[in-house]
Amino acid sequence: MEVYHLYSGGKDSSLAAYILRKIGYEVKLITINFGILDSWKYAKETAEALGFSHEVIFLDRGILEEAAEMCIRDSHPSNAIQFIHEKALEEVAKLRHVERISDGTRRDDRVPFLDQRKTRSLEDRFNVQYIRPLLGLGYRTIRELTDKLFVVELKESEKLEKSDYEVELRYLLREKGIDPLTIFPKKHLQSRVLGWKKEKGHL
Amino acid sequence: MEVYHLYSGGKDSSLAAYILRKIGYEVKLITINFGILDSWKYAKETAEALGFSHEVIFLDRGILEEAAEMCIRDSHPSNAIQFIHEKALEEVAKLRHVERISDGTRRDDRVPFLDQRKTRSLEDRFNVQYIRPLLGLGYRTIRELTDKLFVVELKESEKLEKSDYEVELRYLLREKGIDPLTIFPKKHLQSRVLGWKKEKGHL
């Protein structure tokens, strides 16, 4: 049972990958990139440290351009992040060999988040299972599990070596002469997983 | 990390218990009973077959009486099942030693189901984590996993030796001279887990 799991190297997507493997899935980590920066390499490093197979899927730069325009129009990144995530899920779901897709979205997330209607639409249009291991977990449960499992690096979004959509989106905004700090929340701490806390029992 | 998991012996609550144990929780199975029938014993049998510790918690018969009245008023069991489940979660959550509660409710369930507001209210009022391992899983994913893991017995609700709320609720309705078949859907197939498909690797 293979599952293709959207992976940024952060705590949430790492915890979701851990759960999927524990319950019997063969987990293939997928990092989305738009060919602008090589920021996918941080997710690859983390994937290797955790012992998962990892692949980069390159999406059309036009998607990121459209997302940047949304950021500028809204002065906020929510709609843009949601838009990119839906495109990413669709692009992976449409690959012929893919029967199951997953991500690390959580119960308490606002974006990216697929409601019931969008979830079923995704599954029906592409004949895939969409699995979200963290959907039934609150922030305290997720914090407790990730604290137990992972060695984590915590930095401000601007400084962290990360592989999520934000990194290339911020870069593209800067290219367009827009300061990302006028769009993204100011002190936005984000996390990157560096490895397992204890080696034993997690693989 | 102990979690108190509401358990009927069915596929969903068994799968949720399996996931919780796999990701590192010490799982305590709890079956709710109203002291009318000894229907809890089927869940206990299944719990033992799966190698989980199991406990029965007896709730006030008045809760079931109120639920029976709801069934009669609505000619449908949805509100009653929802009512009992919320009471059951609260009763377990309020126990002093309980820090985490869980159940087998699924993404595609209508009842019992706690929406975001009720979920947070439960967690806040009783200072517990409420964990739902199946919330991010669709029916195909759940079927695939339970088919792989469990030996299952499938029967009509009226005939199955089960431990869920319905069993005592149907009995109480009959006692009141009401035919449960006028309230519950007719050909309602339900499942009971008998054991692991293969012994290895699940414990």
Summary keywords:
homodimer; 203 residues; alpha/beta; Rossmann fold; five-stranded parallel β-sheet; two-stranded antiparallel ribbon; 42% helix; 20% strand; DUF7411 (chains A, B)
Q: What would a concise description of this structure say?
A:
By secondary structure, chain A is of the alpha/beta class. Chain A has helices spanning 11-22, 40-50, 61-74, 78-93, 116-126, 139-149, 165-175, and strands at residues 2-6, 26-33, 53-58, 100-102, 129-131, 150-156, 189-196.
Describe the structure.
The structure is a homodimer of 203-residue chains. Chain A is globular, with a radius of gyration of 16 Å. A five-stranded parallel beta sheet of chain A has the order 3-2-1-4-5, with helices on both faces. Chain A has a two-stranded antiparallel sheet with strand order 6-7. Chain A is 42% helix and 20% strand. The first copy, chain A, has 203 residues and is of the alpha/beta class. The first copy, chain A, has a single domain, classed as HUPs (Rossmann fold, 3-Layer(aba) Sandwich), CATH 3.40.50.620. In chain A, helix 2 links the parallel strand 2 (26-33) and strand 3 (53-58). Chain A has helices at residues 11-22, 40-50, 61-74, 78-93, 116-126, 139-149, 165-175; strands at 2-6, 26-33, 53-58, 100-102, 129-131, 150-156, 189-196. Chain A binds chain B through residues 1, 18-19, 22-24, 100, 105, 107, 116, 119-120, 123, 129-138, 140-141, 144-145, 148, and chain B through 1, 18-19, 22-24, 100, 105, 107, 116, 119-120, 123, 129-138, 140-141, 144-145, 148.
